[in-house]
Structures are given as structure tokens and as C-alpha cells.
Amino acid sequence: MLEHTAPEAEPFNLQVPAPIAAKYPMTPAPVPRSGVSFHHGNTLHQSSANRSNHPRRAVTFHFLQNDAQLVNPALDYEPSNVVKIS
Fold first, then answer.
1. What is the pLDDT of residue 84?
2. d(CA 22, CA 16)
3. What does DSSP assign to residue 75?
4. CA of 37: how far to CAs of 5, 19, 46, in Å?
5. pTM for this structure?
6. 4, 16 in Cβ contact below 8 A?
7. Rg of the chain on CA atoms, in Å
């Protein structure tokens, strides 16, 4: 996992510092309008500015073993959104 930070008041806008990101060449992977991209959370990815009048949507899923606990999470998690599967 690489060092990353979020700008003030943008906790979901995680960014890898430019000198670190520069070590990893990026390959364009265009997503068509109304398309979707699925990738592992440790995959470096980015998007250009949203030039439309419509907001982008994002969903993140974290898969953990049922006995795992988050220790010092950087973001608040809503406990009612936690799904446990037996």
C-alpha cells in the first residue's frame, strides 16, 4: 500500500503524492458514458475532471472476515451499513 492523503474537507478524495505516483506508469482505461469501473482498492486509478452537470457516483465495499475489527479508521463508518455473511 502506498502513502496517500486527502485534501482538507475531502475525506474520500485520496491522493498519492506526485513523486510516488510518478514511479508507476499509468495506462488509459476509458469508461464509456454510463459505464462502470471495478478495481481492487490498491490499484492506482484516477479520473479527469467531471465536465458534465451530473455528479459522479462511487461505491466502496470493504470485505473483511467476520471477526475482523477496524482499528483507528480514517473515516466514520455507519454501523447500520455493515453486512455480515455467514
1. 77
2. 10
3. S
4. 22, 26, 11
5. 0.63
6. yes
7. 16
